[in-house]
Structures are given as structure tokens and as C-alpha cells.
């Protein structure tokens, strides 16, 4: 039986930064991404955690690459509007894909008595996947909100343009059952307290 989640469950938002919108940088001249509703669902999760005073964590990617839009001192390094951390919500700076490598994320989680992680953000096939894999290998009880993530197309070494939805779906299928449990945003919200806000509320459908 799965019990409803409480204060031991942290929400980890991976790289919800403006620079992920630079589709040409990530996907080439025909850059595009899947899941345009990702930000809406991330917002639903964030509102839910905050309204119940559950722990929220952010990663901030500060790339080592000179031309990356995800640099802390560049416009793309800023958090997306409406997804900015509040005072007291830890921001974990990283310069590689996984939020655990070269950071104090593991220590911060343990000090806050967080034992379960719900992960969402960008990109599904890169920093989200790397963070989830590391979390699973380190023994964290890890859940991926699969519809609160997105990725771009990628150009292979032979020039093949790989569709973002296919990359997303394959990544989720690879992670689920091996490194994490994949759930929808509505599934995640149903496992928290009964008075959590619904996705419809964030979308203005009530």
C-alpha cells in the first residue's frame, strides 16, 4: 500500500531556467521541443508543495561551455517567470548534468530529513535523466513527474534529427522501474495531501 506523502517528500525542480528556450542552441536550425504544457504542470507541483509547506529544491545550471545559454551570469541563466525560488528554498548550483555530482545536494536533502524525491524540469533526456539516475543509484526513493518535463530534438553524429517526443518517451521508459517510478502530475498530486491544488486550478479550468 502506498501512503499519502508528507514532509519527507521533496520536490526537485531541475534547471527551470530561461535558457532552455533557446531551441536552436539545443536542437539546431530546426530546434523544437515536446510537451508545451510542462511549465503549467511544474507550476501545479510547485504550488502544491508550497501550500503544504513541503520541501522544494532547485538546481541551477551554470554551464562550463562558453556559448551555453545556461550560464548563471547570462540572461538564460535566470529562472523562468513564476518558477523562481523563494527565500529558504535551496538552490543547488551545478555545472554538469547530474544535480548530485560536485554539489551538496545529497547533504542538503539529508539535513532536511527528505527521503523521497519528485523530479521535474529540463531536459528529460539530459539533466533530468542524469539526476534521476544518480538519485536512484544513491538509494533515494525517486519519482519522475513525466509530464512535467520536456526535451528538444537532438541531431545525431550522422545528421539524423531525432524527434523530441520520441527522445522524451524513450528516456522515461528507460528510467521507469530501473532508477525511478514514473508518474503523471495528477498521480503525484493524488499522493500528497487531500487539499493540494489540482492541475485544473493552475490552468484556470475550475
How is this structure best described in words?
Helix 4 (124-137) links the parallel strand 4 and strand 5 (141-150). The model is unreliable at 194-206 (pLDDT under 50). The chain has one domain (9-203): 3-Layer(aba) Sandwich (Rossmann fold), CATH 3.40.50. The strands form two sheets. Strands 3-2-1-4-5-8 form a six-stranded parallel beta sheet, sandwiched between helices. A two-stranded antiparallel sheet has the order 6-7. The protein has 206 residues and is α/β, with parallel strands linked by helices. Helix 4 runs parallel beside helix 5. It has seven helices and eight strands, in the order E-H-H-E-E-H-E-H-E-E-E-H-E-H-H. The chain is globular. The longest helix is centred in the N-terminal third of the chain and has 14 residues, at 38-51.
CATH fold-level topology:
Rossmann fold
Largest sheet: 6 strands, parallel
CATH superfamily: Isochorismatase-like
CATH class category: Alpha Beta
How far from one another are the termini?
Answer: 31 Å
Per DSSP, the total helix count is: 7
> Any idea what the shape is?
globular
Q: Given the helix and strand composition, which structural class is it?
A: alpha/beta
CATH architecture: 3-Layer(aba) Sandwich
* Lateral arrangement of strands in the main beta sheet: 3-2-1-4-5-8
Number of domains: 1
* Number of separate strands: 8
Helix-strand pattern: EHHEEHEHEEEHEHH
**What is the alpha-carbon Rg in Å?**
16 Å
Task: Identify low-pLDDT runs.
Answer: 194-206
Percentage of β-strand residues: 15-25%
Q: Level of helix content?
A: 25-40%
Amino acid at each position: 500500500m502506498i501512503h499519502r506523502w508528507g514532509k519527507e517528500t521533496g520536490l526537485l525542480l531541475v534547471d527551470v531556467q530561461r535558457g532552455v528556450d533557446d531551441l536552436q542552441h539545443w536542437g539546431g536550425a530546426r530546434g523544437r521541443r515536446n510537451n508545451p504544457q510542462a511549465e503549467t504542470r511544474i507550476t501545479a507541483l510547485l504550488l502544491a508543495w508550497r501550500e503544504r509547506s513541503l520541501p522544494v529544491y532547485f538546481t541551477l545550471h551554470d554551464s562550463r561551455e562558453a556559448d551555453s545559454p545556461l550560464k548563471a551570469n547570462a540572461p538564460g541563466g535566470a529562472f523562468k517567470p513564476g518558477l523562481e525560488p523563494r527565500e529558504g528554498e535551496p538552490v543547488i548550483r551545478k555545472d554538469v548534468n547530474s544535480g548530485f555530482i560536485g554539489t551538496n545536494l545529497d547533504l542538503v536533502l539529508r539535513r532536511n530529513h527528505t527521503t523521497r524525491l519528485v523530479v521535474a524540469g529540463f531536459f528529460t533526456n539530459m539533466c533530468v535523466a542524469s539526476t534521476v539516475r544518480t538519485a536512484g543509484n544513491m538509494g533515494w526513493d525517486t519519482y519522475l513527474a513525466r509530464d512535467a518535463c520536456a526535451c528538444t530534438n537532438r541531431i545525431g553524429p550522422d545528421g539524423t534529427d531525432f524527434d523530441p517526443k520520441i527522445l522524451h518517451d524513450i528516456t522515461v521508459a528507460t528510467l521507469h522501474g530501473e532508477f525511478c517510478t514514473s508518474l503523471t502530475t495528477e498521480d503525484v498530486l493524488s499522493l500528497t495531501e487531500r487539499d493540494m491544488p489540482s492541475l485544473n486550478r493552475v490552468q484556470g479550468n475550475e
